[in-house]
Each structure stands twice: as structure tokens, then as C-alpha cells.
Prior knowledge:
The structure holds two protein chains of two kinds.
Chain A: H1 2-33, H2 53-61, H3 64-95, H4 101-113, H5 116-129, H6 136-159, H7 165-172, H8 177-206, H9 209-214, H10 223-231, H11 239-273
Chain B: H1 2-19, H2 23-29, H3 34-67, E1 69-71, E2 77-80, H4 84-91, H5 93-125, H6 131-143, H7 146-156, H8 163-170, H9 184-212, H10 216-224, H11 229-257, H12 261-266, H13 278-289, H14 292-322
Antiparallel strand pairs in B: 1-2
Amino acid sequence: MNSKMKRTIIAWLLLAPLVAVTIFPFAVMFLTAVKPRTEVLTPTWWPSEFRWSNFADMWVATGFGQALLNSLYVSALATIGAILISVPAAYAMSRFRFGGYGAFRQFLLISQMISPIVLVLGLFRLMAAWGLVESTTALGFIYMAFNVAFTVWMLQSYFDTIPRDLEEAAWMEGAGRWLTLRKVFLPLCLPAIAVTAIFTFINAWNEFVVALTMLRSQESYTLPIQVFSLVAGRYTIEWHHVMAATLLATLPVAILFIWLQRYLVRGLALRAVK
Amino acid sequence: MRGGAWKEFETERLARQMRIGTPLEASQRDTNQPMQNRFLPYLLTLPSLFLAAVVIFWPVWDLIQISTHDVNRFGQLREFSGLANFAALAADPDFVAALWRTALWTVLVVGGALLLSIPVAIILNTDFYGRGLARVIIMLPWAVSLTMTAVVWRWALNGESGMLNSALMKLGLISQNIQWLASAETAFPMQVLIGILVTVPFTTTIFLGGLSSIPDDLYEAAALEGATPLQQFREITFPLLKPFINIAIVLNTIYVFNSFPIIWVMTQGGPANSTDILVTHLYKLAFRIGKLGEASAVSLVMFAILLVFTMIYVRLAMREQRA
Lengths: 274, 323
């Protein structure tokens, strides 16, 4: 007991600098977001009063609602599409041996390693050729493609842990592959599918460079681009609005992420040793 | 009697099949539907292949085309120009500077995150009060998008009214405001530090996974033998953590090498291109200056470097699998 107390003090002392640096930007974000406008540019830490109405003002002044809708649409499209495409692929990789299996895995690995920034010029030309610049739907499809490797990987590593016995028992009872899949296999995988979907959603929600390139007018901006546009190339920046917007755009996703982070770790760990 | 024996044999066979359900066996059993089985896996993987081919391979092919042709700023290809665009790159001092800065950026961020994450993971792996809270705090930067992090830091580092200056002043560490982002001497180190900060959570997570696989009795035995904590680290923790360190290095190298938002949001590579790395240089070439040929050449150079990193990763991961 005593030694645990001692360990606690040492551990927190050692972690203190990192903890302070980690919390610092969150403190800056929160305190600036609730400062009255006149105090934002004075270098004080604590606001004289908490101006919660900043959030409502920001919502109107920055067109936050539209950007939020765009982000939700793009992320949902990317997530649903990626899952619909990946579940069959992951199922095939987990339950079949087929020629080209190894090549497909290598292909997934490589497409996982390529970040969109490397291809952004080619992507832009592809979209321009089809007249799809400004299209949030096209952006959703791009995110879908870049997330497929990740989702297939996460799902396959989970599918592999589900014992085959259950499906085989169902086959022997005379159920076909499709029925078995629907009644036995997929219900078991639902939690893994949900977690993978949420991570895909967060990835799409946070993406910056492709959105920055494809979306040229404010009506189609997603949240990261909208917040960036409040900062970039402006003569006067309303920092309390910017911080209120970052806080609102960040908080829900951050909570989801912290909550589910251990599943991601498990998936990554499985992948690392595969 | 005979019937009974047969039944026993049959149940035994079924039970065995249920226990050892290898994929091979599964496909053998379904030979009454050979068509379905031969083509089904391809059918199932086809949509993902198709999407990736359109969104990933088509742009790669396009980039190869542009980089080997003379191209105007509207993207119309003219005659084949061989490696002229690559030669132009090699002669461009901005590209060479960005290339070196990318190497520096990657080494500093990956190395810094590594040096910080090993002790942090070891601390978080010990049992102390508030460990859950400490883990959540350390993981926080991972939960926030890089864009938002960079926007907040851009404000915190503001020269006139930034809260870092006011905090340092109050602590008596500086006597006048520092214009953090106005020159590369202060901007780039700050970007590296922020890069390290956002890389620590992922790295720590990998190491925590590695540490949890080391059995406690190893340490108990070592302690009985009279090994000091430092010796325990050198002889037990470090060697067993090494495969995880390797994987963290390669994955982080890939992520950091590609990282765009921190530098773009905070300085856009400025002032005077002094904080440009390859990704920001590429973006400027493609969408600001309109030198599409050179921009595609940068893309392909980066693509090649990434392929090398990926191959190293595959090697390491395969060695890990065999071990």
C-alpha cells in the first residue's frame, strides 16, 4: 500500500511535464472560446466572465451548421461505403484460400501506406476530368477508397478470431452459405464492424488535405477546412470564434476516440504480428 | 452392432470436422457447388479492388504521365520529355532544401517521440493511482485532428497575445514576447515539438502492447539475482521491446514523412519557404505555382521513398511473425 503511494507520486511527477504540455492546448482552446471578445487579444489567462454565448454567435458567424452537415454527410458516406465493401472482402480473406490472396494482402498494405497527399494532384485531375470538384459525394468516395485497406485489415483480424465451428454446424444443419452468414456469422461480428466503422468515420471527419484541394467554395467546406479558412489569409481573425469552432468540432469525436481507443490498439497489435 | 459402430465413426468424423475447420476443408466440403466456390472470393474482393484501382492506381498512372511530359499549367500534356521534370527538381534549390528538411523533420519527430514514449510506456505499465486518468491524458492528442491541433497552437504561439508568451512571462522565463512563427529558427523547432507531442500517443500504445507481453516473473527472477532497475531495463525490457520499437519507427516514419497539416496550418511552409517539407512544397508546386510536371515528379519521388519504407515494414513484420 505504502509502496503504491510512493509509486504514484513518482509516476505523476515524471509524467507532469508531458501532461502539462498535453493539456496546454486544450486549456488555450477552452479559455479563448469562452472569453468576451474584448479580452481575447489581451494576454491574460482567465476570462473575467464565461461568455457561453460565444458558441451561439460563432455558429451563425462562421456558418458552422453547414460545415457540420457537410462533414457528417462525407464521413457517413465514406463509412457506410467502406464497411459495405470491406465486409465481403474481409470475409473472403478470412474464410477462403484463393489464388492472389497474398497479392491482395500486399496490395492492401501498400494502399494503406500511401497517404492521399502523395496522390493529391492526380486525384484532383481525376475529379476535374469528371467534373466532380466541389462534390462532397466524390470526396466521400475518395475517403472510402483510402479507408478500405484499414477496414479490411481490422475486420479480417477480427473475423479470424471467430471459430469456424459455428458456421460449420449451421452448414451441416442444411443452412446455405448466405443464411449462415446472415444468421450466424454477421451477428457475431457486429461489435467489430461497429468499432471499425467508427474509426473510419473519425478518419474521414479529420481529413484535411484532400478536402482542402477538392472543396473550393464555402458551401461545400467540411469542418477542418471551414476552421482553417477562418485562420488562413485573413486580416483579422476572430480567435474566440475559431477556438469555439475547434472545440465543438473536436469534442464529440475525441470522446468517441478515447472510449474506443483500446479496440484500435488491439486491431493494430493483431495486424503488427500478422 | 454394426450400425452402432458406423454411427460412432460418423459422429467422430463430424466432431473432428467441427474441431479442425481449416479453410481448405471448408472449400473441399462445398465441392457440390464448385462454381460458387471458385469465383466467390474474387467476387467478394472485387468491389474493394475496383474502388482502390480507380482512386489510387489511376492517379499514380496519371502522375507518371504528367511527370514524363511537358505540361502547361492547365494540365494539358504536350510532348514526351523523359526525365526533364526530375532534372528540374534536382536543380531547384527549394526542392533540395525541402528534401533535407523533410529528413530532419522525420528523424527529429520520430526519434523524439521514441525517446519520450519508452519511459512513458514503462511508467504507464506500472501500477499506480490514477493510471487510467494518466493514460487518457497522454492519449488525448491522438483523439484530436491534426488540423485542429495546429490551429490551436497557431493561436497559442501568437506573438502579441498568444497564451504561451503570457504563460512564460508570468513564470518569469522570458522578459519580452517571442514572435514564435515569424522566423524559421523558432517556428520549425516548435513544429517539431508539436509533431513529437502528437506522435507520442500512438508510439506509447504500441510499446504498452509490447510491455504487457513481457511476463512479470522475468523481473522477479532478475530482482532476486540482484539486478538493478537499469540492468533490468537493458537486459530484459529493451531486448523484448525491440521488435515493437522497430515497427513503431517504420510506421511513424511513414506517418511523419506524410504529415501535412501541422506545417501547412501553422506557417504554410513560410516565412520564405523556410519551413517547407516535401508535402508542403508539393502542394505549392501543384496548386499555387502551377508547375504540374515538377509537382508530379515530387509525388513520384515520395511514392518511391514510401515504397522503400513499406518494404522495410513488411520485412520486419514477417520476421516478427516467424519469431
